Each structure stands twice: as C-alpha cells, then as structure tokens.
Amino acid sequence: MECVITIELGTNAVRVFAFDLSGNVVGSAKGSYPTFHVQPDYSEQDPEQIFITMLYVLKNLITEKLHPQKYTVHSICFVASMHSVLAIDKHGVPLGNVITWADNRGKKEAHDLKMSDIGKVLYSATGTPIHPMSPLVKIAWLKANDKERFDSTFKFLSIKSYILQQLTGEYVIDYSLASATGLLNIHSVQWEANALDFAGITAGQLPQLMSVFSTPGKLRKEYQNSLGLSAQTRIMIGSSDGCMATLGAGTWREDKATVTVEDSGAVRVVGRQVLRDDKQRFFNYLLTENYYISGGPTNNGGVIFEWFAKQFGDFGVPFDTEQIMDNLIREASNVRLGSDGLLFLPYLLGERAPLWNANARGSYFGINIKHERQHFIRATIEGILYEIYSIGKILQEHRAINSLSVNGSFATIPFCAQIMADIFNLPVSMASNSNSVGRGAFLLSAIDMGIYSSFEEAADSTTIKETVSPRDGTAYAPYYKIFERLSTKLEAEFEEIAALQQRV
Amino acid sequence: MNQFFLHHEQSKELAGFSHIQEMAVRKNSSIQLNSLCKSITESIRIYYILDGKFEWLINEHSHVLYPGDLAIVLPGQSFAGNRDCLDIGTVCWIYVGVEYIDKNRRMVLGNWSGLTKNESATISRILQLNNVAVLANVKKALTILQAIREELFGQEIGYGTRVNHLIDELLIFIARQSTHQNNFRRDFPQTFAKLEEALRQNLSHQWTVEEMAALIGLGTTAFSEKVKNYTGFSPLNYLINIRISEAIKMLKRQDINVTDIALETGFYSSQHFSTTFKKLTGYTPGDFRKRNSKT
Questions:
Q1: Which domains does chain A have, with CATH numbers?
Q2: Mind listing the domains of chain B with CATH numbers?
Q3: Would an 8 Å CB–CB cutoff place B248 in contact with chain A?
Q4: Does A222 reach chain B within 8 Å, measured CB to CB?
Q5: Which residue of A has its CA nearest to B254?
Q6: What DSSP element (H or E) covers A395?
Q7: Which residues from A are below 8 Å from B294, CB to CB?
Q8: What pLDDT digit, counting tens, does each position of B181-233 carry?
Q9: Which has more pLDDT, B185 or B2?
Q10: Does the beta carbon of B287 lie under 8 angstroms from any beta carbon of chain A?
Q11: By mean pLDDT, which of A206-220, A376-390, A452-466 is the weakest?
C-alpha cells in the first residue's frame, strides 16, 4: 500500500502526517523545538535542532507506524511557516540561527520603508506587507546592523530551503514561500529587482525558484538508509503553511473565507486576482501561477486567551492549562452575548492586520460594578474574535463572502465558532480533519499524482464535520462598532503608553 | 521563640550533631557598627525572620526580608548586612555543615542525612540552579525550625534521629519551594524553556530525569508525560535532540576533534556518540564532517 507523508515545519514544532491515497490519516507525530529571544525583539531558532527533530520524528513515524502496517512511502511533501531567514556561508554552514516570522528587530527599517515611495512600489510588486516579519526587511537589517554576517553570506535561505538542502543537496524555494519574502514579484514570478536592490543582494544569493509541485532532487543515500526509504520516494517541495491551511480547509471558492486561529491567526481568501489595497493592509501570496491567497494576519489569537488563563485561571493541578481553559469557557457561556457591555481590545502583542501598529495595546472598556469574573472571560474571547472580524470586514470590501471555514485549535472551539458565526452573521463550517495544513499538503501531492484534476476538486473532497449557523445576526453589531472605533481612536494613547513601557 | 544560642564547640545540646554548627534565635534591639560584615562560610546557612525588616546582601544581590521570609546561603556564597549592620528585629538561624563540595560544586551532606545520594545531589543542584536566596512567606519553615529546637532541648528518646530528619525535611522543603517560587507552574512552555536553557548551559552533565523534573517542580511521572505531550519526545530523547544538534554545529566548525565533541555534548564516549549520530542521520560523525568539509 502506498502513502503520502506531509512534513510541516511550523512555528514551534514539526508535524508529520502519513495519509493513505484516499486521504485518511494513517499515522502522525510531532516534535517541538524552542524559540530563543536573546533580545526582546529577537526571535530565533536553531536550524540544526529543527533538522534533527524533523529527522527523529520522521524516522519514528516510518519505523514504528508505517513499516508495521506495510506502507511504502510514495512521496514526502514539505510545508513551512513563512518569512524565515537563514544566512549560510559558501560551505552551506549556517551563520547564526534562523530568524523567524515573529522577529521584530527590523522595526525601524520596516517603518521607514513603508513610508517611502519605493515601499509602495515594493508592496504592490511583491504582495508582502512591509513589516519586520518580511525577509526583505530582515536582510536589509542584517546589511545595516550585522555587516560581518551579511558580507559572509553565500545565500539567504528559508528554513525549508535549508532542510531540503540537507536532504537533497539542492538550494530551492517554492513560489508560495518565495512570495512571502517581499523579494518576489508576484506578477512576473521572478525575483523583484527593486527589492533585491533595497536588500543589497543579488538573485544568485537566493535559492532557485520552483513550482510547488517540483522536486528538488532525490533523497541522499544516507537518509534513504537511515529512514528506510527507497530512492524512488519522491521529494516534493510543497508550499507554505498559510496556503495549505486554506486548501486543507476545503475553501477553493471566491465567496468563501478561511479563518485560522491558533496562537496567532489569519483570515484568507483565494482567487485568481491580487487584492489591491492602497493602505497596504493585505498580503497576496502565490500558490501557483494562477492562484493567489490573500488576507490579513493577526498576532493576537489563542495566545491571548492562554495568557488570560495563565493569569486568572484556577490552577488546581500545576501546568494544566487545557483544563483551565475548558473551565473558563464553561464560565463564559453563562454570560450573555456582548458580555453585558464589557469590551476587550486584544492587542497585547501589538497588531498586524488591519491596524498594522506594533504599538497597539490591550484594554478592557466599559467595566461597571455589576461585571464579574465571567464577564471578563467572555469579553476576552469576544475581543479576540472582533479582531478576526475586523480583518474579515476589510476583505469584504473586495470580495463577497458568503460563508467561513474555520480551523486551528482556538477557532474550532465550538463556543468560538458560534461567536464567529454571530459576529460575521455567516454560516461557519469546520472540517473533519483538524489539521488543515497537513491535509492541504496531502491534497497538493494528490493533485500531483493525478488523484484530483484540479484544486477545486481536491478542496471539495474535504468533508465538513459541523456547520454552525448565526443565531441573531445583528446583535453584535453595536458592540463591534465601539470596538472598531476604540481601536483607531486610541492610536495616540497606544504610542504614548508603548513608549513608556519601552522605557521600563 | 525565645532567644537562645547553640554552638557546636560550646553547647552540650549539639553533642552528637557535628554537622550543626550553630542554631540560634536572636532579638536585635539596636543597630551596631560592623555587626554583620561580609563573610563566606563553607556551611549551608538558613535564616528565618520572626520580626522586623532586614536588608541583606546574599551572593552579591540585595534582598529585603520581612517576617515569614527565609534566606538560604549556600557554601561559598557571600553574606552581609546592609552597611555591614544587623537590622533591628528577631531572626532564627541554623548553620548546617557539609562534608565536602565535589568537583561539580555539589554538596555532599554526610552520613547523618537520610537523603539518598541521588536526591541529595539533585537538591544541591536545584538550589544552585534556581539561585533563589530568599523564599517569601514560608511559615512551614518556622514549624520545622521550632521542632528542631524542641528536639534539641527536650532530648526525648529518638531525638538524635528526629533532628536529622527535620533538617532533611527543611532542605527538601526549601528545594521544592524555591522551584515553585521560580515557576508559577502555570506556563509549561515558559518553564520548559528555562529547563532547556539549563540543559544547554551544561550539556556535558549526565542529566537524569529526576533532576530535570525537580527543576520544573513536578514528579518524574507527571514530568515525563508533560514533556512527551509538549515536545513529542521523552525527556531523555529530547536531550539527545539537543546534544546532536549542538554536535552538528561543532562538526561543521572543523576545529574540534570528534572525541571532544562527544564529551562536550554529553555522550559517554565517542563510540556512544557515533552510534547515536549514525542511527539518526545515517552518517558517522566523521563522514558527516567530510561531507560538510571546506574542500
């Protein structure tokens, strides 16, 4: 029997799934790795640890689950989180750690570029918002602040490019991940000369561009042996986690949006056209030459509810955050929709879409003497979801959205899904397979194998577990109106308080 | 507790307890010059504040202590009063001598202690790694200290055993409490990140699951389960991940020989390193280095 393995190099962990050719999960495993914050704005990971963790998890999955079930591995498809940068020298040796998407060291570079004319040109050419997350900005930061590393860099890779180079010997990047670097022209699908100029590099310093269906090369013999895979196992370069979460959620129609909320979150739509936005609020990432995934990311997803749980939950058993969160949700469900007028702005980590303001901060608003602990719980959850809606709302200026598909650990909590249905006033569906990224990567492989003839057909194969309908479609509107106004009205105060906080 | 002062050279109450160097309660009613100058001793010093407010420099860090707080000064650490004076108030202390400090800076307590060798080593390690000099609001410590005092003065049958048990209990309590104070035991990822840092800083150490669990403040079973859930690996396999990743970096640097890399990253021998490395990567360390060599 044949199976397809998908490997997701995520923010905190590598997740490996094995699917049979009908799309059923026949095995899965994960392994986590740490993020280092050597300075407050820095966010780095060890490329060797990611590589070793991936090998370890993959090997265990193959020998403990797949071989005993007599599966042979047809192909391995790779997915990775976006925006990572790893500098390597001419021997392929990493110069320092991988800089992850969450790294903010390029704040000043990003701000200056965004305000400039060239910034506008680069945004519309590359589809990547000008932000410290963007590899364009990170490389420019290295040029200005870490000359030694910059000058010794042979190539700037993404973490996936590094892993694939270890496995196959080739330096490659797929269109999806490349389109999230701020360096790729998403219209011509070539490295963008103006962006390369700004970063101070040449196209030769970047990996070779490839379609998401391409194979960089064969698995090196040593890894064939250690993993127990044949030389015929196809290595497929794959795509980015954002694009795959959309495909795996079964959303391949222009009138449908995907909401992903794990720690952070995003609202995405798929289409054949780029969404143009003068305020530079959206990303437009490329999946293949004729499909774009557009939308907006938020910093403040489930991580904010976890923050609340850790601070204010009742910890009977040490470290039992999940149980605490379950209890909190039970308490929150005793409170009426709108939390009796208590509002929460969830911007604890600054915000990307739609505010794009690193200095935005959180706030509870409207507290009165009758508000109890349970109101704060519900308000916290509603605040996180108002922010999701604020992204969806600006997307609706460009696309008519008639339904949502949600995935990710926070968004798929039934209580949260219902609130989203109510706030958006749209039906919300949840896919049966909770890991949309892995499923998306499987579908990509299946399209490549000819199992499905198109993205539409592949996406349609995703079965829906549950659809939640809006109950009272207009009830949230007056609350959201205040939420939206506060979020923009407080801009000056956000600046001032953030400046004070940075002094401490 | 009323004032008292016991010293192992003078007090008959301490006969048979050569490891208890001092135990006392002192009520200090005036500030005198040079009453608490900087000193370093080779014993474990434990202070409990009964009354007043004390400002102390422990291991070069300043602390303010209030009634109910406990300070612990480890062998080799410095201890001094603010401006070299003992503040006004009442304090209880006990000095417990250690037999010796081994080459890993671990305290070996001596035969009087009922702690197993492993537990005693782990407690010693935790106290050093946590680096918590002051425990806030630990009334339970007072109960133990009072019991020690009563046993020493009462000398009822079995007191020799009881006193030593109580000192063990006090040390266990302090070790656990210092971990709980260090971690709120709410945020596993954050606490795990601290543990990971401790592992990386001392990768050549032969870490045991007990030590790792104790640093996080969990029992070994709960700890292993949490780690497996969070990282996908057992604690020791996770440690192997870190060891191999560090080894890869060193192999690529070309300037350290393979045996040194093996020992520095915590493998028993280059053979052990080689087998583990090959099992995971398909390459022996030597071949891996050749493939990544500068030629």
A1: 2-242 (3.30.420.40), 259-283+298-504 (3.30.420.40)
A2: 4-182 (2.60.120.280), 186-295 (1.10.10.60)
A3: yes
A4: yes
A5: A93
A6: helix A373-396
A7: 91
A8: 877 777 888 889 989 999 999 999 989 999 999 988 899 999 999 999 999 99
A9: B2
A10: yes
A11: A452-466
User: Closest Cα of chain A to B192: distance in Å?
Assistant: 9
Interface residue B51 vs chain A (CB under 8 A)? no
Residue A455 touches chain B, beta carbons under 8 Å: no
* pLDDT tens-digit series, residues B14-70: 999 999 999 999 999 998 888 999 999 889 999 999 999 999 999 989 999 999 999
CA–CA dist A209, B278 (Å, integer): 32
A-chain CB neighbours of B284 within 8 Å are none
Question: Do A310 and B232 lie within an 8 Å CB cutoff?
Answer: no
Does B93 lie at the interface with A, CB-CB under 8 angstroms? no
CA-based nearest residue in chain A for residue B288: A222
In B98-243, DSSP assigns E strands to 100-101, 107-108, 134-135
Distance of CA A442 to the CA centre of its chain: 18
- Higher-scoring residue by pLDDT: B253, A168: A168
How far apart are alpha carbons A253 and A236 in whole angstroms? 25
Distance of CA A244 to the CA centre of its chain: 10
Q: Tell me the chain A residues in contact with residue B278 when contact means C-beta distances shorter than 8 Å.
A: 226
- CA distance linking residue A269 with residue A436, whole number of Å: 15
| pLDDT surpassing 90 at residue A410 | yes
- Check CB contact under 8 Å for A46 and B233: no
Residue matched to tokens 């109450």: B13
DSSP per position, A216-244: --PPPHHHHHHHT--TTPEEEEEEEHHHH
